[in-house]
Specification:
The chain is mostly helical. The protein has 4 domains: 140 residues, Up-down Bundle (Glutathione S-transferase Yfyf (Class Pi), Chain A, domain 2), CATH 1.20.1050; 65 residues, no CATH class; 160 residues, Neurolysin, domain 3 (Orthogonal Bundle); 182 residues, Neurolysin, domain 3 (Orthogonal Bundle), CATH 1.10.1370. Helix content is 54%, strand content 6%. It is built from 26 helices and 7 strands. The strands form 2 sheets. A 5-stranded mixed β-sheet has the order 3-4-5-7-6, with helices on both faces. Strands 1-2 form a two-stranded antiparallel ribbon. Strand 4 and strand 5 form a beta hairpin. Helix 15 runs antiparallel to helix 18 and helix 16 crosses helix 17. The chain is globular, with a radius of gyration of 25 Å. The N and C termini lie far apart (64 Å).
Length: 670
């Protein structure tokens, strides 16, 4: 049979024909794609014609389509539905992708052709394309001598290998750390649907008659807010924060140390004081000092708020507080002080209704787009649902795939990725995916969301809109291909519609009675808005500052004891709190060690939130949820991708640079 990945998909919008693809097809397609891409680049370099924009920059953008097609499908499975065969293939292929990247951006002849392009007379997006290529050549080490380049290639290959292994160990570690319980009595306090989900998870894992509390990626586990049994809370907490350490076969601390050392070596080789400075050179932040200054300004106020919250929790508890008590008594204080019971709210947040009447309704109200489920199109797993998205004029905009349930083959967390990227040059429209990790209820039972899962659903769809609304010429600039400290901004803006009155009234209805969420409950949620911000900001800053601590090390200063280093780093940054572990500890900090995605860039969530808070103010000032406002946000920002400086896009929307004050007010740090 012909490998279906070797030619463009015949399915609508180029959706990959997953049902027809085997693991060996991915291997074959990647092999063919790597060879074809290098041949295309060689043809660019070997052209006898003088270097010009069309025969160099445009030719580069048109090259590598087979590789892109194969890689997008393959890495979607790596994250969302990885069998043992897929994991083995990832281990084999990841270093080859890293080497391929080096083959491109350490190609001096190719660099010289880009350097020779005359950009006068080109449109701004085309000028930016050349500038961004030249910048990537320099950041990739084109200026190094041959020996330096060879050393850099070795570092990149090893980092790729280590990052792949880190991600695989963390996924297995999260699975093995799940807490198995013998009786439903140990789950007292959990809602009935969560108990049923725990029973189903145990049955699926081969422990029929028992109950399995699976973990989510962050330190704080949702069940700790409801479990009345303090001993079970402690066991769940300790299972969570001890992942990736302890000397087992799933310990990743050795990998983290090795990666920190190699990244420090790489930064020094490229002329930077440390890896964090190398990363920030690619971001919207003006420099590393600006990042440090902002985090340092936030940390003391966040910890003060957390201490005040801790005092209130200890008073409610009537005994000395431990870390595994925080979420339980925080929920208790919310109920007593603000009359907000998060568990009682869940029946009003049923997944299908949240999607149809909340997430999609908000997008239709703002942008005029509509959603049409395509039961005739299949994803890579039976849980994946596919919607065709149509623009206001009825024309096809792209496909949106939703994969909402947790499973053993999926990594933790929530994310968006693209299977097909929009490009006017290539004539492609976007195909984007949202992945979450919601516990799947037994067949026939509703999926009821926590407030955090509700927020995540809207957040990740903000990323999807960024991909769906892309309107750029060159694939390099498409959708979310923006600097890391800008990419979270549009998704955070989309969270503002969760409690927007007309949106909330449309989706927040009891899944049995159909009754709307009582108005007084909405008011109480608003009153309780700042409760817990001390904890939330402190745990986030703990992770962000831990990330920077690992990536400001000199290669010779990487510690032997990773956990002792972690403790010291948090204390030095002023965010060591006995009751609040960082959102991610080193042993499961997948964002920064399972690849380079957020390495030295986890600060980007709060950096982006500065822009988000300003944009929420802008929407409010301009009249809120209107098509006029939505179209302006779409055209000036979401559609632009990285085709112009993202901060220029923000200024085009807001009319000025961002200020920090709206964020401080939002988080109670003013």
């Amino acid at each position: 049979m012909t490998n279906p990945l070797l030619s463009p998909s015949p399915l609508p919008y180029g959706l990959p024909p997953f049902a027809q693809v085997s693991p060996s097809d991915y291997a074959e397609a990647v092999d063919a794609g790597l060879m074809e891409h290098l041949a295309e680049i060689e043809a660019i370099v070997a052209s006898p014609a003088p270097a010009g924009f069309e025969n160099t920059a445009v030719a580069m953008e048109q090259a590598g389509q087979l590789l892109q097609r194969a890689a997008a499908s393959f890495f979607t499975l790596v994250s969302a539905d990885a069998t043992d065969e897929i994991r083995d293939l990832e281990t084999e292929l990841s270093p080859r992708f890293a080497a391929h990247q080096d083959d491109i951006f350490l190609n001096r002849a190719l660099f010289e052709r880009f350097s020779a392009i005359d950009t006068s007379g080109l449109d701004p997006e085309s000028v930016r394309l050349v500038e961004e290529y030249l910048k990537e050549f320099r950041q990739s080490g084109i200026q190094l001598d041959p020996a330096g380049q060879e050393h850099l290639k070795e570092i990149n290959a090893e980092l790729s290998r280590l990052g792949t292994e880190f991600g695989q160990r963390v996924k297995e570690g999260m699975k093995s750390a799940a807490l198995l319980l013998d009786s439903a009595e140990e789950l007292t306090g959990l809602p009935a649907d969560d108990v049923a989900s725990a029973a189903e998870a145990a049955r699926a894992a081969g422990h029929g008659g028992k109950y399995l509390l699976t973990l989510i990626q962050p330190s704080n586990q949702p069940a700790m807010a409801a479990l009345e049994n303090r001993g079970v809370r402690r066991r769940l907490f300790e299972a969570s924060i001890s992942r990736g350490s302890g000397g087992s076969s799933l310990d990743v601390l050795d990998l983290a140390r090795s990666m920190a050392r190699l990244r420090a070596e790489k930064a020094a080789l490229l002329g930077f004081a440390n890896y964090a400075e190398l990363v920030v050179d690619r971001q919207t932040a003006p420099d590393f000092e600006a990042v440090q200054a902002m985090l340092s300004r936030l940390a003391p106020a966040a910890v003060r708020n957390a201490d005040a919250e801790a005092a209130a929790l200890a008073e409610s508890a009537g005994h000395p507080l431990e870390a595994w008590d925080w979420a339980f008594y925080s929920a208790k204080v919310r109920r007593e002080k603000y009359a907000v019971d998060e568990q009682a709210l869940r029946p009003y947040f049923e997944l299908d209704r949240v999607l149809r009447d909340g997430v999609f309704f908000a997008a239709t109200s703002l942008y005029g787009i509509t959603f049409h489920e395509r039961g005739d199109l299949a994803g890579y797993h039976p849980d994946v649902r596919v919607w065709e998205v149509r623009d206001q004029d009825g024309s096809g905009l792209g496909l949106f795939l939703g994969d909402y349930y947790t499973r053993e083959s999926k990594r933790g967390g929530a994310w968006m990725n693209s299977l097909v990227e929009q490009s006017d040059l290539l004539g492609t429209l976007p195909v984007v995916i949202n992945n979450l990790n919601i516990s799947k209820p037994p067949a026939g039972e509703p999926t009821l969301l926590t407030l955090d899962e509700l927020r995540t659903t809207f957040h990740e769809f903000g990323h999807a809109l960024h991909g769906l609304f892309s309107k750029v010429t060159y694939p390099r600039f498409s959708g979310t291909a923006v600097p890391r400290d800008f990419v979270e901004y549009p998704s955070q803006v989309n969270e503002m519609w969760i409690l927007w009155p007309e949106v909330l009234a449309n989706y927040a209805r009891h899944h049995v009675t159909g009754e709307p969420l009582p108005q007084d409950a909405v008011a109480r949620l608003d009153d309780a808005r700042l409760w817990g911000e001390g904890f939330g900001t402190t745990e986030y800053l703990g992770a962000a500052l831990l990330d920077l601590a690992w990536h400001t090390l000199d290669a010779t200063a990487v510690p032997d004891d990773a956990l002792a280093f972690e403790e010291k780093a948090l204390a030095a940054a002023g965010v060591a709190h006995a009751l609040i572990p960082p959102r991610y500890r080193t042993g499961y900090f997948q964002h920064i060690f399972a690849g380079d995605g957020y390495a030295a860039g986890y600060y980007s969530y709060i950096w982006s939130e500065v822009l988000d808070a300003e944009t929420v103010d802008w929407f409010t000032e301009q009249g809120g949820m209107t098509l006029t406002n939505g179209q302006r946000f779409r055209q000036e920002l979401l559609a632009r991708g990285n085709s112009r400086d993202p901060l220029e896009s923000f200024r085009a929307l807001r009319g000025r640079d961002a200020k920090l004050e709206p964020l401080l007010k939002r988080r109670g740090l003013d």
